[in-house]
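Backbone-to-sequence.
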């Protein structure tokens, strides 16, 4: 009896022929160690299989990583502590990344697959990881609420209003806690774009609702998709430009969405079509996470302490007699450290604050923590404040940087201790926070380039004119 010779092998047959684990063969094919299937979908010819080195296939595997461990690694890559507008990466998300082709399936449950640790590490190093997760991993209601930075109750209001619709669903078996439940899944991109698409909503107010309070979205009426339309001014608000820019886009781009209602003078557009066009033409981007402020505080002994504030809000006064305020989401540990640093009579000093939309700032002393707010979703928001007159630039050089002493604005004279800065001078006081009474005359400590320098310079000019 003549035994037939196999001419092609599937995954299991190839692994058996080489006597290697199935996961090892899958990784070899996914990593390029073995050529792609050449005998049909998922099938390799006998020549390819027999030409493969079994030892090289075994050595390349290094042991599969479970989906849960891989999810933890990717979560760590998003930041520690995890940004407030980022949900944890789940084992199911690893399954979606496999389907999208970013990870090779090595075995196990298809929804929670085993993957290669080296490939997970490479994915974790990608700077566009947040964008990849948004694009390829749908979110359940709780995860979507976290991505938006609101309570689950507020997200339910978003769904009620018709601003989001499920893109898929998944059945979860809770066994003794209710059996199988169908959970809707939402596009993370659509969730992230809500702030862009709905600029009229005060999202900061929605995020800072305390537990047990009614959602600010509850007072809004649901609108049918057919009636959810925007004028040219609404398109401009979504894009963050003026109305004239939108008119120019309509004139220059033939693929600009056509009006769905309205008149020639006041056309109405479908916001979904508008957003798709704006994204395709790079007029807007998908927010990948919260903006972050880097805050470096100095204690009275000169020690430096660095903090991170997510989604910072910096309100700068226009009068030197006013008060600047900075708020942002923080961890409990950082909030405690901030409060301890600022607890003294003179508060803490900001050596450098780097926040979106403003240049680096410095504040020499009197920085206080004025509020610690716990939102209904559990986030902690800290607010710091300081006299606006103390604020200055944190850059080095003659036009910025903390000026410990300065030239008196009325008469420089020979008694001035520091001649480096020419900001208009400072007011003499009886005691210096940094030098005590060792410097004579003692002068107030402030950064150059801020509101106080401007006011003092103006006062010097007036004094000189009167003289």
């Amino acid at each position: 009896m003549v035994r037939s010779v196999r001419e092609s092998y599937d995954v299991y047959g190839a692994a058996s022929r080489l006597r290697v684990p199935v996961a090892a063969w899958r990784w070899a094919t996914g990593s390029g160690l073995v050529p792609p299937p050449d005998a049909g979908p998922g099938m390799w010819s006998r020549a390819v299989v027999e030409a493969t080195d079994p030892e090289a296939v075994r050595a390349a595997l290094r042991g599969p990583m479970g989906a849960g461990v891989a999810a933890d690694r990717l979560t760590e890559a998003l930041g520690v502590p995890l940004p407030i507008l980022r949900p944890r990466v789940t084992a199911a998300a690893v399954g979606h990344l496999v389907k999208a082709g970013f990870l090779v399936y090595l075995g196990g449950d298809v929804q929670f697959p085993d993957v290669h640790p080296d490939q997970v590490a490479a994915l974790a190093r990608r700077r566009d990881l947040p964008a990849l997760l948004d694009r390829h991993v749908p979110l359940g209601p709780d995860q979507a609420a976290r991505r938006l930075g609101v309570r689950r109750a507020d997200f339910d209001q978003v769904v009620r209003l018709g601003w989001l619709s499920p893109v898929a669903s998944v059945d979860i078996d809770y066994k003794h806690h209710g059996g199988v439940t169908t959970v809707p899944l939402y596009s993370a991109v659509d969730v992230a774009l809500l702030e862009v698409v709905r600029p009229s909503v005060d999202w900061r107010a929605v995020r800072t609702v305390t537990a047990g309070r009614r959602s600010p979205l509850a007072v809004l009426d649901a609108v049918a998709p057919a009636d959810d339309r925007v004028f040219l001014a609404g398109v401009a608000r979504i894009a963050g430009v003026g109305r004239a820019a939108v008119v120019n886009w309509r004139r220059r781009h033939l693929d600009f969405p056509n009006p769905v209602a309205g008149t020639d003078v006041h056309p109405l557009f479908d916001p979904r079509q508008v957003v798709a066009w704006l994204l395709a033409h790079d007029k807007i981007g998908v927010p990948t996470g919260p903006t972050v402020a880097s805050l470096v505080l100095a204690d009275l002994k000169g020690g430096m302490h660095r903090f991170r504030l997510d989604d910072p809000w910096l309100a700068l006064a226009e009068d030197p007699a006013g008060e600047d305020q900075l708020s942002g989401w923080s961890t409990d540990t950082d909030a405690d450290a901030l409060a301890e640093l600022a607890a003294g009579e003179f508060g803490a000093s900001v050596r450098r604050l780097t926040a979106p939309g403003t240049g680096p700032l410095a504040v020499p002393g009197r920085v206080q923590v004025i509020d610690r707010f716990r939102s209904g979703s559990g986030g902690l928001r800290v607010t710091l404040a300081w006299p606006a007159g103390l604020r200055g630039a944190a850059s080095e050089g003659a036009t910025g940087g903390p000026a410990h002493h300065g030239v008196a604005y009325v008469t420089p004279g020979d008694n001035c201790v520091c001649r480096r800065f020419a900001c208009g001078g400072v007011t003499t006081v009886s005691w210096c926070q940094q030098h005590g009474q060792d410097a004579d005359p003692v002068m107030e400590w402030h950064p150059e380039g801020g509101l106080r320098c401007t006011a003092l310079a103006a006062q010097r000019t007036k004094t000189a004119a009167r003289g």
